[in-house]
Design a protein that fits this description.
It comes from Tripterygium wilfordii (Thunder God vine). Helices cover about 25% and strands about 15% of the residues. It is an alpha/beta fold. The chain folds into two domains: about 90 residues, Roll (SH3 type barrels), CATH 2.30.30.380; about 240 residues, von Willebrand factor, type A domain (Rossmann fold). The strands form five sheets. Strands 8, 9, 10, 11, 14, 15, 16 and 17 form an eight-stranded mixed β-sheet that branches. A three-stranded antiparallel β-sheet has the order 4-5-6, with no helix packed on it. It has a two-stranded antiparallel sheet with strand order 1-2. Helix 4 crosses helix 6. The N terminus is likely disordered.
Length: about 425
């Protein structure tokens, strides 16, 4: 058996095998010191991977995409799925294909391709032609959740980083802003004439339905609450233009709200709630994340959205609390967790576990950027980050290069981009 000797063994497909030669018999297979295995990197970038400007054509039985391993009858305009052997008719837009006029996905050298999905209205038209499940809106969504319980210098650092990040976003990216301290505030970006916020108490858990109701996004008849219908959302998954009265009050394209958010950040102050001597600041991290998740879940279910949390200390108020406000009470250590001597731990983990389930169900991601000299509660919060495929960055200060460089790479394009995925 030959060992790997290629310069780029993974090639354009991002697949690496422990052996390059398949055993011919069971005896040969049993003699393999290293078992047969493969690692697959589905989003590995490669210059030879073509980008096709349309949605993939899928098998009507198993939903596998048309690929170069499919058998094609060019005369009858039929392709046979190599996975389930289902015979599929080509739609009208493939009517010109022939052995000398192949679509990109049928070229034998293109065993991996990527697709750029068209605008949702075009996708809907394509759905009618191909009878495929309707795709979701391709605009990325970012809701920034900003902690204001920090000294003025730290808040200035994080505000500067936020302004730079919003300037790097694509023009069509939707942006929202939630700030929190003792209470959580959702900022209305669609009302630029006046700084307008919706305030949520930080000392008690809040459901998605309550978020809807308080933000004025739920429907009701004759005083009775009915099932919430997201404003600007149709059955079938196609997003239409959001009216000013709905989601566009809170989530706006970056090109339209950059000035408004920069103005809001300039006016934003550290949390004004008084902190008695010997106490920690009252910080309702859990409620702020619940509100952000509720807003996204109510308005943009199933779209590619990220909640980007910028936290400067431990949660001391409401759900997700990890420590009391009394400074004489030390933050739990690894030994405390091992001995089951952390009184807030299990309740906080349960809260974030439920938040993780909600985010996974909605298809949304939680990223955590925590900058503090003390602990911020990542042990409790990590379940929500891990299950949604988010990032965690820990630094001593929002002015530290670890935070600033990492935060910039999330949003920039080019070779330095992290190439983040959504949903």
């Amino acid at each position: 058996m030959s060992e790997m000797a290629n310069i780029d063994p993974e090639g354009m497909d991002g697949v690496r095998m422990t052996w390059n030669v398949w055993p011919r018999t069971k005896v040969e297979a049993s003699k393999c010191v290293i078992p047969l295995a493969a690692t697959i990197a589905p989003i590995r970038p490669h210059p030879d991977i073509p980008t096709l400007p349309y949605a993939p054509l899928r098998c009507k039985t198993c939903a596998a995409a048309l690929n170069s391993f499919a058998r094609v009858d060019f005369t009858a305009k039929i392709w046979i799925c190599p996975f389930c052997f289902q015979r599929n008719h080509f739609p009208q837009q493939y009517s010109m294909i022939s052995e000398t006029n192949l679509p990109g996905e049928l070229y034998p050298q293109y065993t991996t391709v990527q697709y750029t999905l068209p605008h949702p209205s075009q996708q809907h038209y394509q759905h009618q032609q191909q009878q495929q499940p309707p795709p979701s809106d391709s605009s990325p969504v970012f809701v920034f959740v900003l902690d204001t319980c920090m000294i003025e210098e730290e808040l200035d650092f994080v505000k500067s980083a936020l302004k730079r990040a919003i300037g790097m976003l694509p023009d069509n990216a939707l942006v929202g802003l939630v700030s929190f301290g003792t209470q959580a505030q959702v900022h209305e970006l669609g009302f630029s004439e006046l700084s307008k916020v919706y305030v949520f108490r930080g000392d008690k858990e809040i459901s998605k339905e309550q978020v809807l109701e308080q933000l004025g996004l739920s429907g009701g008849v004759a005083g009775r609450r009915t099932a919430a219908v997201p404003v600007g959302y149709q059955k079938g998954g196609i997003q239409n233009v959001f009216p000013n009265g709905g989601i566009a009050r809170f989530l706006l394209p970056a090109s339209e709200c950059e000035y408004t958010i920069n103005t809001l950040l300039d006016e934003l102050q550290t949390d004004q709630w008084p902190v008695p001597p010997g106490n920690r600041a009252s910080r309702c991290t859990g409620v702020a994340l619940s509100v952000a998740a509720g807003l996204l879940g109510a308005c943009l279910p199933g779209t590619g959205a990220r909640i980007v949390a910028l936290v400067g200390g431990p949660c001391t108020e409401g759900p997700g609390t990890i420590i009391s406000k009394d400074l004489s009470d030390p933050v739990r250590s690894h030994k405390d967790l091992d001995k089951d001597a952390a009184p807030y731990f299990k309740k906080a983990v349960k809260f974030y576990d439920n938040l993780a389930k909600q985010l996974v169900n909605q298809g949304h991601v939680l990223d955590l950027f925590a900058s503090a000299l003390d602990q911020v509660g990542v042990a409790e919060m990590k379940v929500a980050v891990e299950r949604t495929g988010g990032l965690v960055v820990l630094a001593e200060s929002f002015g530290h290069s670890v935070f600033k460089d990492s935060f910039k790479r999330v949003f920039e394009d080019g070779e330095q981009s992290l190439g983040l995925c959504f949903k």
